[in-house]
Amino acid sequence: MSFKVTSAPISAQMMEVEQKYSAHNYTPTPIVFENGLGCEITDVDGNKFLDFSAAYSACNTGHNHPAIIKAVKEQYDKIALPSRGFTHSRYAEFCKTLCESFGFEKVLTVNGGAEAVEFAIKLSRSWGYVKKGIAPNKAKVMMAAKNYHGRTLGVTSGSSNETARKNYGPFIPNVGPSYGDGKTLQFNDAEALEECFKLEGENIAAFIIETVQGEAGIYPPSPGYLEKVRELCDKYNVLWCADEVQMGSYRCGPKRWAYENLSTVKPDVLITAKSISGGIYPVSVVLSSAEIMNTIEPNTHGSTFSGSPIACAATIAALKVYVDDKIPENVAEVGPYMLEGLKAIGEKYDLITAVRGCGLIAAFDLNTEWLKKSGMNAWHVVMFLRAKGIACKMVHGTTVRYCPPLIVTKEQIQVGLDALEDCCSLLPNMKAENIPGVKEFHYLAH
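-> structure tokens emitted (446 positions)
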């Protein structure tokens, strides 16, 4: 049997140390990155992989894009951090570039995606009190069930994932998918959204949703759903906040934002992060109209590294790379090739029960009952793909995501498809312990 990655002794040693000293807030696929360029990564043992995770879309432009690295290095030679108690020479250009490129009037910068959603909650509440006239401390921010907006306490308050919530209560009230008398608002359910607004609309400041639910397993909205969201938010005077932290920057198609690829309407508030700085430096932003953004008071939100010169340099350079490298055009060509290839494999083999996706991101559900009978689970599928040189992740123990950098070629996509087809055809005749790495990294299995 032909495996590309059969041994990783240094990786095993490092991960043992990591397990001993690091908080166990992640369960990584056992690949210890050492170098990366474009879609290719090398681990500490010299094994080479194609990255089909792209740091959850942060590395849309590929790892260590030379143009972005150059811009950041040049900025480091000048100044890295003056603090937000002052301003700096890159910030005006940064704000102007983002607002004009993204089609909004005002921008607020923070660092991570969860921070941006946290601010969107605050912004929505502020607008609700100042503009909508919601009674003090009554504002509600709706979210959809099975969302993933991050892991901060405010965002986790809106989660329906009990594993994410366990031992972290009490939670912030009036944030999340609950409405009415014990009902739960589901993503992609326009009728339930209208019922929710009818029941509680006078106190609802905003509806925050991922345009495509990512961590849930890549669930795009049905045609017409986002238009209905826009219609209902207008009717009940509710802000529609689109979380495009993972799905923005051409991930979902040749247009910049997922909502542009999947609808004809525009949100009131845009939340994005990760890929706007090319995976080089943490940058997240919230954009909206002047009317909405001006409801916040000076000195009531911010963070030390937000909008730093390095953040601005990385973002401005990355936005140029999207154009110069013709990334939208590549997504338009390669995205359908990957999705069609996955669907063809799914139709051919029993291991895959469903395939979903849009643009250049896709997920395939696994036949977990079949795996269980063979003494395996989704982790073993990921480990098989790892042994074939494909770095990818699973979600919820049932689904595997393919999310390569947007510069990926058809030839590289085909390598990923061939690896999956080998997995589907060969795994039924294998024992779990014969998959390279399974014995060494058994403690990571779910």
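The chain has 15 helices and 17 strands.
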